[in-house]
Amino acid sequence: MSDTVAPEARRAGLRLPAALSASTPVFVLLGVLLIVLAFVDIGFYEPDRLLAFIRRAAPLIILAAGQYFVMVSGGFDLSVGSIVTVGVVVAAELFNIVPDMPWPVAVLILLVAGMVVGLLNGLVSTVLAVPSFITTLGMMLILQGAVFFWTQGAPRGYLSEGYRTLGRGMVPGLPWLPWAVVVLVVIAVAAVLFMRSDTGRTLVATGDNDAAAALSGVRVHRLRVSAFVLSGLAAAMAAVLVGGFTGISAQAGNGMEFEAITAVVLGGVALGGGRGSVVAAMAGALSLQTLFTLLTMLGVSGALESTVQGVIVIAAVALGAVSWSRRRRVPNSTKERR
């Protein structure tokens, strides 16, 4: 199968310069925001404050990485925010039922549950051919309804101190380094290595042209299901960090699905798939978190965050469409001159 997949993977590799070009604006934006932040708050870049900021941003960056896998393959995952909420509530209930449960077991249960939700999303959207937008929207509503029915708006239980270590604790021997930053770095490196593998390149090729990928021997459905499983896994890990940092809440993940999509789009990932960089998607999440932090420092109401996200999505998609059409016109005009 590797011989048949190779042409698609190579073609995806040839699209790398275009992906890098599309992602350039997000790195420029991130640089500008970080510079402005330095002028607004001179002490922001003190090591402890900077790492605390990255710790707060870690769940969104991880969600953006998971969302990237789905979007670059041609889909959407609107259920990730609800997976975060369910993860926080379920973890609290687990410790309420089994107080002596080792916290790694609780983390493992959440990760497996997140993967199961992703698997269901993937199977429904591929085997039953239900559009991923509709599938994950339905899953989001199902999970939200289940949480409200179970908790009546007031979650029970508690999160053990060991469990909360990943979200708010420091690495032993390195009291300046949050565990959340370590988790983020490990996941970011894993995501980059995955996208540099043949499977990652084939995932991009599938989003670009699934029919051509299928003719090349790619198991398109299996690949897209895997993307949803990875997204569910990332959402479950984000739930562990959110629960550890903020505690129990029935609204822990509210709106995070739209923040993740905004981050990925801001990173230059095409809405139809087939183009984009996972590094740029994570940079988009960091840019979004930086922008929200900057707005808070400037005294801008947090109620405007949704408005800002809407503007970013429209502007990023419009910019991507314009740059993509220009790149397509250049080869055509060259052919006409010949």
Automatic annotation (TrEMBL):
Source taxon at top rank: Bacteria
Record has Cell inner membrane as a keyword: yes
Locations listed in the record: Cell membrane
A Pfam entry, by short name: BPD_transp_2
GO molecular function, one term: transmembrane transporter activity
Keyword Cell membrane included in the entry's annotation: yes
Record key words, sorted: Cell inner membrane, Cell membrane, Membrane, Transmembrane, Transmembrane helix, Transport
GO cellular component: plasma membrane
Membrane-spanning ranges: 26-45, 57-74, 80-98, 105-124, 130-150, 171-194, 225-248, 260-286, 306-325
Entry membrane topology: Multi-pass membrane protein
Name of the protein this chain belongs to: Autoinducer 2 import system permease protein LsrD
Organism: Actinoalloteichus fjordicus
